[in-house]
Design a protein that fits this description.
It is built from 10 helices and 15 strands. By secondary structure, it is an alpha/beta fold. α6 links the parallel β9 and β10. Its main location: cytoplasm. Its cofactor is Mg(2+).
Length: 335
Amino acid sequence: MPNATAPRVVVVGSFNVDHVWHCDSLPRAGETRTGHYRTGPGGKGFNQATACVRSGAATVFVCALGDDEGGALARRLAAADGIDLRAQASEAPTGTAGIHVDAQGSNSIVIGPGANGTLSGEFVARQAQAVTGARIMLAQLESPADSVLEAMRLARASGVRTILNPAPANADSTRELLAVADVLTPNESEFAALLARHSSERIDAGEVASADDERLHHLCRTLLPRGTVVVTLGAAGAFVSHREDKCRGDEAAHYRVPAYEATVVDTTGAGDAFNGALATSLALSVERVFADHVRFAAHYAARSTEHEGAAAAMPLLAAPGAVASSRPAQDASPG
């Protein structure tokens, strides 16, 4: 467990109670399948906050919770992991998610926002002391866009580095929100959706991983001209694109980081594991080049796929950086 004096990561985002069905293949429209059921904690914000604290960073989590068993679960789990929970009380029920996972670990998800949709910019603003005392602000888009923007603005105004995970792909986003991100971390679907929404450029999500590096770099610069874009590519690893004059210690303005070996059980929280570990590494190891942070995140995400669940699958490290020596491969990675 990180000590209270460790550099902090503040995560603004969602908490969901996940309802998960494992089946041989994902159900098609009109189809009924047999599987086995479990329930547990999730939500991109909570998953990422759990990854942050378990990978070594003192973590503040800002969210909205209902007055119900789901909200009580969030409070118990945050306390158990040492997460500093800042929860806005909501009359709406705590968020939920319905998840199907197939035999290969692939998934499909339906979200019921509930309380997550009520998180206000005013409540976020009241957490200013936590935000300005952090090293990294991490946010996603399962919370209202204006609340996320408020958090990112607070951070930027205080010199706190910001990471925006623009997920899910169909979430609202604005150019203004992208502009306050130092690092943007879409997966293939989110990357294609952002380009379609915010530029004249187009790429099919299924073509992103195999696209030419120069083309991907151009698309990343179009999307976030002043920041760094890390596109997670599933089994193909990740693609990194920096502004040419701000490579964050890297020798190249763009490059790929390969995936890491894993015995995949469930990929549900892999992207969240990647984002949380990236935030931790950036907060704790400021002297490392950016490529090292991405490798740490990719390896941590690969380890998370070896267990069922989302937040529950986040590996607990004995020390920050403990997973960094594993061997790259092409069969597991954040997605």
